[in-house]
Amino acid sequence: MKLISLFFLLILPWHFNANVEKGEEPIRFQLKNAGITVHGTISDWEYEIYWDAKKLANCKVTGTANPANINTGIKLRDKHLLGRQYFHTDQFPLISLQSKKIRAKGKNSYVGVFDLQIRDVIKEIEVPFTVVVVGQLQVFKAEFSLNRLDFGVGESSLVLSDEVKVMIELKK
Hints:
By secondary structure, the chain is mainly beta. It contains 2 helices and 11 strands. It has helices spanning 2-17, 75-82; strands at residues 21-22, 27-33, 36-42, 45-50, 60-65, 70-71, 95-106, 109-118, 121-134, 137-147, 163-171. The protein has an 11-stranded antiparallel sheet, with helices on one face.
């Protein structure tokens, strides 16, 4: 009995964490601020994918990102974005994304319905993405826009755009 218990203690944690992978490329985003496009990244993120293009009902994509690693090229702005008015990382340290449904849109093209949580707000969003085989890897690329105000990130502004464009690339 002790041997079986030891087996589960050693094997099960590895089994459940085996598919979690760190994002190699940072999550990229851009938005307009005073008419100028601001580019930024979040480099600390991870994801988990269960993918079978022939059985989309069984597919699952989840991910988390740590906005404390935001980089817009201006350290003072990055620090400001971590504060209470924007990401409020002291209280909400992670952004999460979880698939609910995935459907084919065309060859290597899909649309996923996801729950996206930023701060304490969860909203359902649609994310178009492609899956291309490169060597032995599947490369997933997504590009979508969201309204930052829908998630309580900042306030309405005459100079800061509400729309944020997000670009993600991951490999499986």
